[in-house]
Specification:
By secondary structure, the protein is an all-alpha fold. It folds into two domains: about 325 residues, Hydantoin permease; about 70 residues, no CATH class. The protein is about 80% helix and about 0% strand. It contains 18 helices and no strands. The chain is globular, with a radius of gyration of 21 Å. It starts with a helix and ends with a helix.
């Protein structure tokens, strides 16, 4: 038996790591955005769910397959594409977005506003955040035990809560799906999918899992690829099933709770399906989803910044700093945090997608195409970024809106593909000469 086969983890170990990864991805965004998407989509809920899945689940799958193929972290992939300086800046921005600056404050404040405050409305925000991040540090500080703590204890509880809610909503829906639907459900799904940041998270989680495999004795590159090739699809499928199910719940409740806003709508669905017990289940579901995501991303930040600094920054110190930053920014409140997150996502997400898809291929042959595609995606994302910052009608967004798929929020896609193809052809001609 080859070394690679010997290092293929047992089914139980793969299940634990997959569950931990799923819980790391499944955060407050996956709880609040699909129901609102279904509410707006109505009879077109399935197409909206597929748009959401393109960015959310397919993006996650592509990310893990890219990491599996190249055996490189996001820092390594971006650095060899456009240089070390770009790689450091790009990875830092991505990690800050997906970690202490945006996601950690979002999940912690959501835990307070949508779980704790449901039952204890006078409980202070700072107290919730203090407890949240003290536990966050306690679970994340020991790198060797993070995955087991998530995959064996916290993740099963999250999955059970989610399954109860979806199954009840499918078997005995609150109401029938309305006959009317969204005019552009696919685009609605794509834009909502950006908000979860899961593809971006997977690009960073990929390196986290490579280190986890090494800690478990799987240090052979081929064996790591094989293990990740099992783990990635399991996580992506889990996210697709849950997001599609919750989108359907949102569509069925749209006529019953027509005025409910984001966040509150999910609470109403849970209470409508399961009564007061449902409200309690939702609170527990949300708290588990937020906490597991926070722990996973805090641990990932520790790995990423330790790698980037060449070991000068220590894992435990980074975990502590991330928890403190999350606490401080979390005091701003959920609504404001969601508002300032979106523009940055629109700026980096297209480049992340191009980078990950490009790394599914032979990097040596595809490098010029990947460089051209990434630069094009970044340039054409500037308009959406500026619009998200309140500068509507800027020249970049006006230009992007006229491009193919511009109305679907994917105006960067066709030009990036064309630029990559042209660069690939020119590179081939240059080599022949």
């Amino acid at each position: 038996m080859s070394k690679g086969k010997q290092n293929l983890l047992s089914f139980g170990a793969i299940a634990v790591i997959s569950a931990a990864l799923f819980s790391g991805h499944f955060g407050v965004g996956d709880v609040i955005f699909p129901p609102i998407l279904g509410k707006g989509a109505g009879s077109s809920w399935f197409m909206a769910a597929m748009g959401y899945g393109i960015i959310n689940s397919l993006g996650v799958l592509v990310a893990y397959l890219a990491v599996s193929r190249q055996q490189k972290t996001l820092l390594e992939m971006s650095s060899r594409t456009l240089g070390r300086a770009f790689g450091v800046v790009f990875t830092t921005i991505c990690m800050l977005i997906i970690g202490p600056v945006f996601i950690l404050p979002r999940v912690s404040s959501a835990t307070h506003e949508m779980a704790v405050a449901l039952f204890f409305p006078n409980f202070p925000l700072f107290a919730t955040l203090a407890i949240f991040f003290a536990l966050n540090y306690w679970v994340a500080y020991n790198r060797d035990q993070v995955i087991d703590r998530l995959g064996k204890v916290l993740s099963p509880a999250l999955i059970i809560f989610m399954a109860v809610l979806i199954i009840k909503g499918v078997v005995a829906p609150i109401a029938a799906v309305p006959a009317t639907g969204s005019e552009n459900p696919l685009a609605d799904g794509v834009l909502n999918g950006y908000n979860t940041m899961n593809a971006l998270g997977a690009a960073l989680f990929g390196g986290w899992i490579l280190k986890e495999l090494a800690l478990r004795g799987v240090d052979d590159k081929d064996a790591q690829s094989k293990n990740l090739a099992y783990i990635g699809p399991i996580v992506a499928l889990g996210l697709l099933v849950t997001s599609t199910g919750i989108t359907y719940l949102g569509a069925t409740a749209s006529t019953v709770f027509p005025d409910a806003g984001i966040g509150v709508y999910t609470v109403m669905i849970a209470e409508g399906l399961l009564g007061t017990v449902g409200k309690a289940i939702f609170a527990l579901l949300l708290a588990f989803a937020c906490f597991t995501t926070s722990v996973g991303l805090t641990s990932t930040a520790g790995d990423v910044f330790q790698e980037m600094s060449g070991g000068k920054l220590q894992y435990k110190a980074i975990v502590a700093a991330s928890s403190l930053v999350g606490f401080g920014i979390g005091m701003v409140g959920l609504g404001k945090i969601v508002g300032y997150t979106v523009p940055w996502l629109m700026l980096v997400y297209p480049a992340i997608i191009v980078l990950l898809v490009g790394n599914l291929f032979d990097f040596g042959k595809f490098k010029p195409a990947l460089q051209a595609g990434m630069v094009t995606a970044i340039v054409l994302s500037i308009g959406d970024f500026l619009s998200g910052m309140g500068m509507e009608g800027n020249p970049f967004s006006t230009m992007t809106a006229k491009l193919p798929l511009g109305g679907q929020g994917l105006g960067w896609l066709v030009p990036a593909v064309v630029a990559a193809a042209v660069a690939l052809v020119l590179s081939g001609m240059s080599k022949k000469k």
